[in-house]
């Protein structure tokens, strides 16, 4: 298991578009679903947003359609996935197929998320990450699922699903945010 973990870590560091520091932009379509009791959708909203990145950070944001105030700023930096403080676990249902799930955990006092990653056994390419963030200020919980693709030699997040429960004074406010990358432009 450690072998696959190290190979996936090296592959990610070599191809991570955020870690490369290059200038690029992404056009995303985001859909936000406010959730009521028992997960019933009470409000829907969508927007197309272009994010401009430079040196691994969001440089500027442009709303193409929709209201930006209803959407969280996109965070595509996942460089803490392969943090050295993590413990890795083998899934008991591993069948030896192409995709390998690796459980990731941390000491309960750490502020890092835990969850699992999915990699391709042959190429060591990161395919999917599912993370649970237990200690985010102002939130009861945050769960994030991210799928990845390779684009022009870089590993790039392609789809995000965030399930969020915000703490209020007397109640929580829950929503689901789905974000799909529609276009990537890399400045060369």
Question: Can you walk through the features of this model?
Answer:
With 188 residues, this protein is mainly beta. It has helices at residues 2-15, 17-20; strands at 24-35, 41-54, 57-65, 87-90, 99-105, 114-120, 126-133, 139-151, 154-167, 172-186. The radius of gyration is 17 Å and the shape is globular. It has a 10-stranded antiparallel sheet, with helices on one face. β9 and β10 form a beta hairpin. The model has no long low-confidence stretch (mean pLDDT 87). It has a single domain, classed as outer membrane lipoprotein receptor (LolB), chain A, CATH 2.50.20. The chain is 10% helix and 55% strand. The N and C termini lie far apart (37 Å).
Question: Which short descriptors sum up this protein?
Answer:
outer membrane lipoprotein receptor (LolB), chain A; globular; 2 helices; ten-stranded antiparallel β-sheet; 188 residues; 10% helix; mainly beta
Question: Helices, strands, pairings?
Answer:
Blueprint: H1 2-15, H2 17-20, E1 24-35, E2 41-54, E3 57-65, E4 87-90, E5 99-105, E6 114-120, E7 126-133, E8 139-151, E9 154-167, E10 172-186
Antiparallel strand pairs: 1-2, 1-10, 2-3, 4-5, 5-6, 6-7, 7-8, 8-9, 9-10
Number of domains: 1
Provide mean pLDDT, rounded.
87
Sheet with the most strands, sense and barrel status: 10 strands, antiparallel
Number of beta strands:
10
Please report the distance between the alpha carbons of the first and last residues.
37 Å
Q: Which fold name is given in CATH as the topology?
A: outer membrane lipoprotein receptor (LolB), chain A
DSSP summary: helix tally: 2
Strand order of the largest sheet: 3-2-1-10-9-8-7-6-5-4
């Amino acid at each position: 298991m450690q072998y696959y973990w190290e190979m996936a870590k090296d592959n990610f560091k070599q191809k991570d578009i955020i870690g490369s520091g290059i200038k690029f932009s992404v056009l995303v379509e985001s859909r936000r679903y406010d959730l009521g009791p028992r997960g019933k959708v009470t409000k829907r909203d969508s927007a197309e947003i272009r994010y401009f990145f430079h040196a691994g950070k969001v440089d500027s944001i442009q709303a193409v359609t929709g209201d930006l105030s209803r959407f969280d700023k996109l965070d595509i930096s996942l460089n803490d996935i392969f943090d050295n403080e993590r413990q890795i676990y083998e899934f008991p249902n591993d069948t030896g197929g192409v995709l390998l799930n690796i459980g990731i955990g941390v000491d309960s006092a750490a502020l890092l998320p835990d969850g699992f990653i999915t990699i391709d056994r042959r190429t060591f390419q990161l395919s999917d990450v599912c993370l649970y963030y237990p200690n985010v200020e102002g939130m009861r919980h945050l769960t994030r699922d991210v799928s990845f693709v390779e684009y022009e030699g870089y590993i790039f997040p392609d789809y995000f699903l965030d399930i969020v429960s915000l703490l209020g004074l007397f109640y929580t406010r829950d929503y689901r945010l789905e974000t799909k990358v529609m276009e990537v432009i890399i400045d060369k």
